[in-house]
Amino acid sequence: MKKKLRLPILLLAVVIMLSIFYIKEAKDQPTGEVNGDNLQTSTLNPDFTEARLLSLTEASEQIAEWEESIASGTLSAQEVLDTTTKISNLKKVKHQEAELEQTIIELNQYQDVLVLLDDEYLVIDIYTPDDIEVQSFIEIAKIAKQSFGSDCVVKLKTTNIDE
Fold first, then answer.
1. Is the pTM of this model over 0.85?
2. Cβ within 8 Å of residue 15, ≥6 positions away
């Protein structure tokens, strides 16, 4: 009898833990969506648009895969907690990328900006007709490090509109 009760009790505990986690996460999040849809980014450069869509698609697929593994019920409580943390962190990164793009565009009046975090670098590509001064690069790098942490390696580049 006791062995038959273990699985339902474990599943109930996991559901309660996930519910508490999501309630806390919802309270800690800003009022807008976490995926960056509410942030308006310019899409003048089709290559930037394609890169953004590819990045968001990959992130969505990864999140769906992690959510499926949670829903399967084969993970331990600690694995569920670790997986939900991964999901939260990935959503946070995508939101930070979109926010940083918008901040850089607003502060410097650039045509378009692409921000993508990969394993090695935070890549910031600026789409503008003008040459950018070194001081602007330094300011952008400072803003990026404030958003993503001081240990983040920032790689800045420009894409000229005329090309």
1. no
2. none
